[in-house]
Design a protein that fits this description.
The complex is a heterotrimer of chains A (266), B (371) and C (290). Chain B is built from eight helices and 20 strands. Chain B is of the alpha+beta class and 371 residues long. In chain B, the strands form four sheets. Chain B has a six-stranded mixed β-sheet with strand order 6-7-8-3-9-10, with helices on both faces. A five-stranded antiparallel β-sheet of chain B has the order 13-12-11-14-20, with no helix packed on it. Chain B has a five-stranded antiparallel β-sheet with strand order 15-19-16-17-18, with no helix packed on it. In chain B, helix 2 crosses helix 3 and helix 2 packs parallel to helix 4. The longest helix of chain B is centred in the middle third of the chain and has 18 residues. A two-stranded antiparallel sheet of chain C has the order 1-2. Chain C has a two-stranded antiparallel sheet with strand order 3-4. Chain C is globular.
């Protein structure tokens, strides 16, 4: 080792090895899954050639398509509702100061603090004791609640990064509070709102535990459908559907990040 | 409070009148008085500066005039109309913000036109005013740029144009030059003064930079701890400070404690172990009274023959002038400044015993309120 | 002032009705008598659900010790602790590696660490079934190389669950450690080198103390969700390696014992809240650095 490297605080033995192991550990299973989804052989783990057959099969599977449709309906409604609630809350939280504000912040974070199984069964008992029939509606309600923190945090972050003087400047230039909000605050918040919307959408789309307990007849989502298939056995078709789910999530989260990053465009 | 700067040249009409304005944050024992009891008249067409250290209340006062803060007591009159309770968007007053606060999602032109748009002016009037304002600040060719794509100095000009576009009755400027580098700041000082003269709008300018205040203003109000201590022309503030704080905040100054021995048209006072000095009468002064006299270093004349003895402890060369650190017989220190000329080496050296003198009008009487 | 606050209301009301009230209701349900068809007999109060943690009710209504459930709870703690330790061992060098990269690399690396979190947990755990099962990637590879001639039992045991848990929650360890390491001025480390401290002593006396808040936060963020995990043991444990989460879930499925499920849920919730409160108090006392 050269003298310079010996005193270099950025070089430590084993760091690259550890990080290499980490990224391999995290990404190899995903790559293996995606690769196997293109495997021609029905015996899932023996590679015999490339095919798109399993994707074709998946797209002609009515049960899968119905589950996908449910997933989209639930994720859209829950994400939009959560984003609206979060936007209203975040705007006011940034504008006013009141005692109990930290309590509100803790409350909003509650759904991500507690292991999901607990609120999932609690919500199940809640609906059951009210006599509510489990289904699409109950799933949407439950999803809306646990999507709130994911929508709220990027919106809040965006607002906090915003110069307070901007809203004041609008007022100073004869904009009433209402016009100042729609002309200045809202457009500037938009990247945060969109980013929150996308994150909430992903979280709802990917959810398994809450849907599993709070759902009922007619609310089978993609994760529930996949879970059912996985329990009965591994098939190449499951690989294809799973790979698609991963791809959608990765595309959406990249989009959300891009939206959150954009400084002045929206 | 009677206005000490009343004798300075001022137009007759008041654009802004502040009457006993106070502003406190919080309540009870924790209450913080950002403004205690501020009264001032700001004349039409005046370049009026609020000068003071950070936390002195100058920005709070400006925000009260703009309407972002509501004073807890007192009146703010704009052309004789009380505006203290009006929201900012109903006041014909515009602000240039310290951070500029340009709208990042709009172009330069849209920013400048925003105020007129909110006033629902016709489209063609907005367009022509925007062009006129951008011409005024020499930014015409950047009209369609985004505000994130232009330099700090250019943003500063856009902020000015935006605040001037609705033709406000009063323009408020909150330390607008503090983010600029020295060279740009000097340029903008000249530019601001030109704009004020050209537009004829009353400017209220907030700064903590004494040099900026002295070079640009018609009148300066020096603030500290929520009060205005002195209002006057830059010349008055500099040469006749009434308060120790004002004297000390603006440039170097020497304080001399003395006892009045005689008071007629001019007065005499004795500085113990130093000698008698003569100064101009200012307000009520009685024989036997203990007073503090203030004198600027450049108003002290040094010569071998001058009547008050002193010893040179240090000589510091500053390019345009030389600073002498002097020790008086009563052990006080004193600074004297003399302009350098013709490249001569100074006539004296460290350790020399020489003398100093001061003209009567160089000594200002400090209304002593040590704080 | 109140008029201004009402907009915060809808979000708060939604969380209170659909989260706080159901969670509180669990306490009440946990002391009701079970209904064997699922649900509870309201108003019929009993401590049975709580006794079930360590007792079994015999046919003649007497109680005898039973450690079936306790062993599941202990296993949950053991597996979560193991997950936390492994995550720390893998996560710390990774975070340190990231913190010492140039700025533009760091942004990409953080994105790469965060990305798996946003992908489907179920699918990611399913990927491990493909890898670990008898004819999976690992066994297939080892057998074709002739290293073994019978598949190793990799799936449906504690090993598989631990692998899956680490895989699921590892990013939560890396990110907080990274964010505290990132703030460290590397000149401090160079100063330590300059004062003739060796690498390991510099690590112990300079870097570790500064990274401590991140390490603590990371351990909590891994331990808590691991303790309450449901999907990983369900898929990779194969019904034999249950954890608290599955035990809770099963009370609402085949076991039909809601009061016991509620009691278990409350127990888990209490653990989480205690850990979070302790952490919040600690960070507040030490000046609020995360």
């Amino acid at each position: 080792m050269s003298r310079r490297a010996a005193g270099d605080a950025k070089r430590w033995p084993g760091l690259a090895l550890g990080a290499g192991f980490f990224f391999a550990y995290v990404y190899l299973p995903i790559l293996i899954l995606v690769a196997l989804s293109f495997n021609e052989n029905r015996v899932v783990t023996v590679w015999t050639g490339f095919t798109l057959d399993w994707y074709k099969l998946a797209f002609h599977n009515d049960a899968m398509l119905r589950a996908a449709e449910n997933s989209l309906i639930i994720a859209s409604v829950a994400a939009v509702s959560a984003t609206i609630l979060s936007t209203l809350a975040a705007v006011r939280m940034a504008q006013v100061r009141f005692t109990g504000q930290t309590a509100v912040n803790a409350l909003v974070a509650l759904p991500i603090t507690v292991p999901e199984i607990v609120p999932a069964v609690a919500t199940l008992m809640f609906f059951a004791s009210l006599g509510v029939t489990l289904g699409l509606g109950t799933v949407i309600l439950a999803h809306t609640v646990f999507c709130i923190p994911f929508a709220y945090l990027p919106i809040r972050a965006r607002l906090e990064g915003m110069d307070r003087a901007l809203a004041e400047a609008a007022g100073d230039l004869y904009a009433s509070p209402r016009r100042a909000f729609f002309k200045i605050t809202l457009p500037l918040m938009m990247p945060g709102i969109l980013s929150g919307l996308v994150l909430a959408f992903i979280i709802s789309l990917d959810d398994f535990v809450t849907t599993f307990f709070v759902g009922g007849a007619g609310s089978t989502t993609l994760p529930i459908y996949i879970f059912g298939l996985v329990r009965t056995g591994v098939t190449p078709e499951v690989n294809a559907i799973s790979a698609l789910m991963l791809l959608i999530s990765i595309a959406l989260v990249s989009l959300s990040l891009f939206l959150g990053r954009s400084e002045h465009r929206y | 409070m009677p206005e000490p700067g009343a004798e300075a040249t001022r137009p007759s009409k008041n654009a802004i009148e502040l009457r006993n304005v106070g502003k406190s944050f919080g309540a009870g024992a924790n209450a913080f008085f950002a403004l205690k009891d501020v009264s001032a008249n700001i004349g039409e067409n005046e370049f009026f500066t609020l000068l003071g250290p950070s936390g002195c209340g100058k920005t709070t006062l400006l925000r009260c005039i703009a309407g972002f803060e509501e004073p807890t007591r007192g009146e703010i009159l704009l052309y004789d109309q009380d505006i203290a309770s009006l929201p900012p968007y109903r006041r014909p007053v515009n602000t240039v913000f310290q951070s500029y606060a340009l709208f990042p999602h709009m172009t330069v032109g849209e920013n400048v036109g925003f105020g007129l748009q909110m006033l629902n002016r016709p489209r063609d009037e907005i367009a022509s005013t925007v062009n006129e304002m951008l011409r005024l600040v020499q930014m015409e060719e950047l009209r369609d740029r985004r505000t994130s794509e232009i330099s700090g100095g250019q943003q500063q000009r856009v902020a000015l144009a935006r605040a001037l576009a609705p033709k406000p009755k009063v323009l408020l400027l909150d330390e607008p030059l503090s983010a600029l580098d020295l060279k740009l700041r000097k340029e903008m000082q000249v530019e601001l003064k030109r704009l004020q003269t050209e537009t004829g709008i009353t400017f209220i300018f907030v700064t903590h930079d004494q040099e900026e205040a002295l070079t640009m203003s018609d009148r300066v109000a020096v603030m500290n701890k929520g009060d205005i201590l002195q209002i006057g022309s830059p010349r008055e503030i500099y040469n006749q400070p009434k308060h120790r704080f004002v004297a000390d905040f603006i440039g170097d100054i020497n304080f001399l404690d003395a006892i009045v021995t005689e008071c007629g048209v001019t007065c005499q006072a004795e500085i113990v172990d130093v000698g008698m000095v003569e100064f101009l009468r200012e307000g009520e002064i009685a024989v036997g009274q203990h007073i503090t006299l203030a004198i600027r270093p450049e108003r002290i004349t040094l010569s071998a023959q001058a009547r008050h003895p002193c010893r040179i402890e240090n000589i510091v060369y500053h390019g345009t002038d030389t600073i002498y650190h002097l020790r008086l017989p009563n052990d006080d220190r004193m600074l004297a400044r003399s302009q350098n000329s013709e490249g001569h080496a100074p006539a004296w050296q460290t350790g020399d015993d020489i003398g100093w003198a001061a003209a009567p009008d160089a000594l200002a009487v400090i209304a002593d309120n040590p704080s | 002032m109140l008029a201004n606050i009402w907009l915060i209301g809808p979000a708060v009301v939604a969380i209170v009705i659909l989260m706080v009230i159901p969670l509180s209701m669990m306490a009440w349900i946990s002391i009701q008598a079970r209904s064997y068809g699922g649900g509870v007999h309201w108003g019929e109060l009993t401590g049975d659900a709580w006794l079930r943690f360590v007792f079994e009710r015999n046919l003649d209504d007497s109680l005898s010790w039973s450690f079936n459930y306790l062993s599941i709870i202990l296993r949950s703690f053991w597996l979560s602790a193991l997950t936390t330790v492994i995550s720390l061992i893998v996560g710390f060098p990774t975070a340190f590696f990231m913190a010492t990269r140039p700025l533009r690399w760091r942004t990409l690396l953080v994105f790469m660490v965060t990305l798996p979190f946003w992908t489907n947990l179920l699918v990611r755990n399913y990927a491990w079934i493909l890898i670990l099962r008898d004819h999976g990637t690992i066994n297939g590879l080892l057998m074709s190389l002739g290293v073994i001639d019978r598949p190793l039992p990799l799936l449906h045991n504690e090993f598989a669950v631990a692998v899956g848990l680490v895989y699921s929650f590892l990013p939560f360890m890396v990110l907080p450690i990274y964010s505290s390491l990132e703030k460290i001025d590397l000149r401090l480390v160079e100063a330590a080198f300059d004062l003739y401290s060796g690498r390991w002593r510099a690590l112990r006396h300079v870097i570790l103390p500064l990274a401590k808040p991140g390490i603590i936060a990371g351990c909590i963020l891994v331990f808590i969700p691991a303790l309450g995990s449901y999907v990983t043991p369900e898929l990779l444990g194969g019904g034999k390696t249950l954890m608290i989460g599955n035990l809770i879930g099963h009370q609402f499925g085949a076991a039909r014992n809601w009061p016991f499920g509620a009691a278990l849920g409350l127990f888990l919730l209490a653990l989480v809240l205690i850990a979070m409160t302790a952490y919040a108090l600690r960070t507040r006392r030490s000046g609020g650095t995360q």
